[in-house]
Amino acid sequence: MGKIMRETSRPSSNSSPASPSSAPATSSSTSITETVKGSHKFKITGYSLSKGIGIGKYIASEIFSVGGYDWAIYFYPDGKSLEDNATYVSLFIALASEGTDVRALFELTLLDQSGKERHKVHSHFERTLESGPYTLKYRGSMWGYKRFFKRTALETSDYLKDDCLSVNCSVGVVKSHTEGPKTYSIAISPSSIGHQFGKLLEGGKGSDVSFEVNGEIFAAHKLVLAARSAVFRAQLFGPMKDQNTQCIKVEDIEAPVFKVYINFLCASLLPLVLIYVCNTVVKYVPIILFVSVLIFTLHFMLFRALLHVIYWDSLPDMQELTGLSSKWATTLMSQHLLAAADRYGLDRLRLMCEASLCEDVAINTVATTLALAEQHHCFRLKAVCLKFIARPENLRAVMQTDGFEYLKESCPSVLTELLEYVARFTEHSDFLCKHRNEQILDGSDINGRRVKQRL
């Protein structure tokens, strides 16, 4: 607690008593230090196959996040130190993201798989008063044990079951902040610029350009389009701008994979066609007309959704836009919007579509999504699709879809990458490929508690 004294003139003998305003002012603040906790369970299958990979070589868990930092568990089947001659297995937790002087508490637990709950626990949480939090200096700094468990004892223990080990790691990142009394607070309303521009689009006031999409006219504003898209800026104001910038005809804005859905639609309607076949072409007209209307409607909805994002800075309600409640329709629109975003240089829309497609990965749409991700260089979305398809329970079903046929024709190089993902599952070696190709040298002592920067 701090105290501030104010100087006041000494009152004269005939002055009145001191007023309340002359009383000393006081203030206070509180420093709060706490841990942000999280844990990660790491299952190591095929332990016997991992033996012999070499001293100092490790198996890494997936990266996980706690307290704003990334972490990874490193298991050394042949030990970490040459002097131990592969007598022990080593286990460490490492800082996997950039950070300086990250203070944290750790707990490494080798789980007893017999049901007796006799876990092997090394906890830093219980020694807080003794030594305080551990400080990791750099990315790659580690905490753990070179001699975590003797290999001969481990292989005859209840910790190893069905050639598998289970490790649980708890991390508590220490963070501090100071709180004091708030003398005032002024609420700031959320930005409404997107709503205001959206209303400008809906009202059409001041529009100075229009787009024709399959006979439908959309009114818009050149300056808004140019500010949001470099492609529109070049088209409307660049040296090679269109001759007629009052009305621009838009063609072929749907994704190439749309023909896959048309084929799927026609295939699904084939039984109806066979029923009505009477040696006349007339019976096919309703089918052809329906497909034509579908293409026309897609163009209309897609450009409408594109303008919605440009003005409102948010995705439209896909169900409201398409009039359908199925996830298939939502995924279809997101796929086409992704292609349109790449065509018009709308990076934020592109990320929105990637995020939406990641959430809705499904058997009947994942192959076409993967093709789009490859064609438009969406590497994170591509990785999600590859992992989904490579799972044994998904692979056969995906290969029977029309989208997979399109994937083979349009992106044959992706099949090689898919085979690599499948191999990781089938050969029980995916854990050897998940970690980053980095060698981390920590120069720790016999207990692995001293760290150095990654070289």
UniProtKB/TrEMBL annotation:
<dbReference type="GO" id="GO:0012505">
    <property type="term" value="C:endomembrane system"/>
</dbReference>
<dbReference type="Pfam" id="PF22486">
    <property type="entry name" value="MATH_2"/>
</dbReference>
<dbReference type="InterPro" id="IPR000210">
    <property type="entry name" value="BTB/POZ_dom"/>
</dbReference>
<comment type="similarity">
    <text>Belongs to the Tdpoz family.</text>
</comment>
<dbReference type="GO" id="GO:0071472">
    <property type="term" value="P:cellular response to salt stress"/>
</dbReference>
<dbReference type="InterPro" id="IPR002083">
    <property type="entry name" value="MATH/TRAF_dom"/>
</dbReference>
<feature type="region of interest" description="Disordered">
    <location>
        <begin position="1"/>
        <end position="32"/>
    </location>
</feature>
<dbReference type="Pfam" id="PF00651">
    <property type="entry name" value="BTB"/>
</dbReference>
<dbReference type="InterPro" id="IPR034090">
    <property type="entry name" value="BPM_C"/>
</dbReference>
<dbReference type="GO" id="GO:0016567">
    <property type="term" value="P:protein ubiquitination"/>
</dbReference>
<keyword id="KW-0812">Transmembrane</keyword>
<dbReference type="Pfam" id="PF24570">
    <property type="entry name" value="BACK_BPM_SPOP"/>
</dbReference>
<comment type="function">
    <text>May act as a substrate-specific adapter of an E3 ubiquitin-protein ligase complex (CUL3-RBX1-BTB) which mediates the ubiquitination and subsequent proteasomal degradation of target proteins.</text>
</comment>
<keyword id="KW-1133">Transmembrane helix</keyword>
<dbReference type="InterPro" id="IPR011333">
    <property type="entry name" value="SKP1/BTB/POZ_sf"/>
</dbReference>
<dbReference type="InterPro" id="IPR008974">
    <property type="entry name" value="TRAF-like"/>
</dbReference>
<feature type="transmembrane region" description="Helical">
    <location>
        <begin position="260"/>
        <end position="282"/>
    </location>
</feature>
<feature type="domain" description="BTB">
    <location>
        <begin position="207"/>
        <end position="265"/>
    </location>
</feature>
<comment type="pathway">
    <text>Protein modification; protein ubiquitination.</text>
</comment>
<protein>
    <submittedName>
        <fullName>BTB/POZ and MATH domain-containing protein 2-like isoform X2</fullName>
    </submittedName>
</protein>
<feature type="compositionally biased region" description="Low complexity">
    <location>
        <begin position="10"/>
        <end position="31"/>
    </location>
</feature>
<feature type="transmembrane region" description="Helical">
    <location>
        <begin position="288"/>
        <end position="311"/>
    </location>
</feature>
<feature type="domain" description="MATH">
    <location>
        <begin position="37"/>
        <end position="171"/>
    </location>
</feature>
<keyword id="KW-0472">Membrane</keyword>
<dbReference type="InterPro" id="IPR056423">
    <property type="entry name" value="BACK_BPM_SPOP"/>
</dbReference>
<dbReference type="InterPro" id="IPR045005">
    <property type="entry name" value="BPM1-6"/>
</dbReference>
